[in-house]
Amino acid sequence: MSMTDIKKGLAGVTVDYTAVSKVNPETNSLLYRGYPVQELAATQPFEAVAHLLWKGELPTDEELAALRAEERLHRALDPDVRTAIELVPLDAHPMDEVRTAVSLLGARDLAGTGSVLDAGGNPEENLARSIRLFAALPAIVAYGQRRRRGQDLVEPRDDLDYAANFLWMTFGEEPDDIVVDAFNRSMILYAEHSFNASTFTARVVTSTLSDLYSAVVAAIGALKGPLHGGANEAVLHIFNEIGDASNVGPWLDEALASKRKVMGFGHRVYKRGDSRVPTMKAALDTLIEHYGRPDVAALYDALESEFVSRKGIYPNLDFPSGPAYNLIGFDTLTFTPVFIAARVTGWTAHILEQAASNALIRPLSEYNGPKERHVEGYVADA
Ligand code: CMC
User: Fold this and answer.
1) Is 171 in contact with 331 (CB distance < 8 Å)?
2) What reactions does this protein catalyze (predicted)?
């Protein structure tokens, strides 16, 4: 038996420095480039937070205007990307659709680079690619939901900022300010969270000097899983299964007896509550009030208090964001694609950081397979 100390799931392992964000489970705080996330969510448009993550500082008025102008230039769904989306079966998971669209955008952008040695790009090119992806994703996500509902593409509106335009392209209606504000807050809360599984995936891919799009496509694959981004979708399935606050007790009896994980609870880093939850819960409360849905509040509160008192495990961001996205009108299957549109800012900030001080990420493993053995009949060359 080896004495190697295996860190299964890399739990508790610090792999590198980052200046993008700081998670402090002791004080239950999350800072983006030094700013508490709840302060950013309360005061900033998502575009300003994207600028902060990429460049390290909140934008001046001129910088914000420039980023917004650039974002508007790349909002419309590219016709070839639309064709690619339409090749994805309607009953495929929308995460596969977004992954495919980003993959095509990357292949086209990198066409002509000739060699893998040219594909990685320089920091300026990669920042420009990050902004284009950030701008292009809402149309991809919005059109995906619309085509599954048998609805036509809605063209972007130049008079709307990022969050309002995202909702416009999804629903084809001018969104209410309360809804835009709650959605904007959710995008900021989802934007970044240090070395989570998808961000780490993006950094691993970048560490081989591969290109930004390959890193984002790989990150989308990691985010799809229900232990990570897929949890916001899974939370809504649970809400639908339970149906009414009065069913929480019996539902939990059965779920816990069958050792089922209750999605939207627990976190690898936070053990006493996810720092993003109070801000998202407040945004959910505004939506509950706006849509007149006290039943959602009752189910939320009942499941939270019952699960926390039985297991001592607290909700994570996906617990309030799942019902919030449902109230806004997103289909359950669209929740994790919306998460992509937010997290692409954090992923690309980490890709830029990894590329700027790269070391190939290549851990070790402890072998526990069969002892050395030999192929029958093999004779070594003389
Ligand atoms: N429901 C039931 N039991 C749970 C849950 C849960 N949601 N979370 C943790 N536990 C139990 C788990 O069964 C285990 O019990 P035991 O020691 O008796 O086997 C113990 O708590 C430790 O759990 P773990 O899964 O080994 O711990 P981890 O640090 O690997 O877990 C987690 C982190 C997020 C994978 C886990 O809490 C989980 O599966 N939660 C549900 C999925 C979810 O909501 N994911 C979103 C995470 S936050 C957003 C994001 O990053 O995308």
Assistant:
1) no
2) oxaloacetate + acetyl-CoA + H2O = citrate + CoA + H(+)
So what's the pLDDT on residue 121? Answer: 83
Give the C-alpha separation, 165 to 363, whole Å: 43
Q: Is the CB of 317 under 6 A from ligand 1?
A: yes
Distance CA 121, CA 125 (A): 6
Rounded Cα gap, residues 26 and 326, in angstroms: 32
Length in residues, the chain: 382
* Per-residue pLDDT tens digits for 300-315: 999 999 999 999 999 9
Residue pair 129/70 in contact by the 8 Å Cβ criterion: no
Per-residue pLDDT tens over the stretch 311-338:
999 999 999 999 999 999 999 999 999 9
In this structure, what token pair is assigned to residue 98? 């977004």
Q: Is 228 a catalytic residue?
A: yes
* DSSP 8-state symbol, 246: G
C-alpha dihedral (20, 53, 362, 267), degrees to nearest 10: 70
How many whole angstroms from 264 Cα to the centroid of ligand 1? 9
The span from the CA of 331 to the CA of 321, in Å, is: 13
User: pTM to 2 decimals?
Assistant: 0.95
The answer to whether the CB of 175 is under 6 A from ligand 1 is no
**CATH code for the structural domain at 231-328:** 1.10.230.10
pLDDT tens across 172-186, in order? 999 999 999 999 999
Q: What architecture (CATH level 2) is domain 21-110+119-224+345-356? A: Orthogonal Bundle (1.10)
Please give the helix or strand (H or E) that residue 82 lies within, else none: helix 79-87
Q: Tell me the CA–centroid distance for residue 262 and ligand 1, in Å.
A: 8
Contact 154, 160 (CB under 8 A): no
